[in-house]
Specification:
The chain is an all-alpha fold. It has two domains: 2-229, Up-down Bundle (Rhopdopsin 7-helix transmembrane proteins), CATH 1.20.1070; 241-355, Orthogonal Bundle (Arc Repressor Mutant, subunit A), CATH 1.10.10.60. It is 69% helix and 2% strand. It has 15 helices and two strands. Helix 5 runs antiparallel to helix 6. The longest helix is centred in the middle third of the chain and has 31 residues, at 133-163. The termini are far apart. Mean pLDDT is 80; it is low at 225-237.
Amino acid sequence: MAFIFFGCGVCLFLFAVSQILVRGRQALHWWMSIDCFFLSYLLFYFWAVCERSIPYIPTVLVGSDISAILFIDPCFFVVSLSILHGRTRPDKRFGLLLLPAMVFSVGLGMYDSLTSPGLLRSTTTVPGHFSSPSISILTAFVCCLFTVVAVLDLIAALFIRKAREDPPGSVFKTQVGFLLVYLLTSFIMLAGCLARSDRLLSFGLALLGLEALCFTLTCTTIVYFIERDIPSRLRTDPTRPDWDAAAPDIAARLQKAIDGAGLYRDADLTLDRLAQELGVDPKRLSYHFKTFLGTNFRGYINDLRLRAVCRDLCESPAASILDIALKSGFNSKSSFNSLFIKAYGVTPREYRARNCV
């Protein structure tokens, strides 16, 4: 068990360093780096505890395994959510999730330092700190929180899958598979805390390290090579001459149904339903969006909705921005705001003040 802790800790530490040094790093790389740093620390901590390789650890670090898991939980949530969305850049507001862990870790370190008579404390404590009722309860709490985070990511995956117009790709399926395995591991860790079993908790932690190691090996070949990140000259999308010939007809139908009838204002509009309205196969319609319009169904519809919002912002200066967004087909204020800012670089209110005078 100690060998697994040490080996996985070393590999995860090196992977965390690689995320910092990678060329063209983004916010997702930093989140993955923080996640792997704290996970490697957690594994090193329990290697020292189980192996007794280090006879003493600083008092300020006693119980720091709980702080490490508290840091791992929000990082795990943000990384998983970003991968499920297709490697979108994590929102800066997610950084606030790290504040509780920072406050707790500093507070726990100060408490250990002030209440302990010496500078060093023996590492005879087991991973669950079962000799201390209060600390063992905290261990169970952070393990339960890890379970909650895995469940929230799986629920998000269901909603993302439901909103997609295309079948989920290998990245999405792989991440869902990892989430299911992580969820099972969190149950084992939680069971070890509730049963006060040092062996069961250590087994769950070792599994967590092995799963994280498998993830790092997988994401280097899958996650960072999502189709939209591959240069167009390297893509090998098959062409369909028979579908290409029908492009003018589909474009005319699309113009009539979407622009003329304002079908894009329907918040429940899907690719299948639009294809049915046009009388074409959904796959052929999806091919038309990608090949001739350079986008997908969702991007095309959102672009039309954003243009309608901009037009209505100027034509109806007294109308509520939220009412305009809902009228244009958006069903979520948060998604509308993020799409608008991404497209125009300003908020809808700022757009109206600058362009609608």
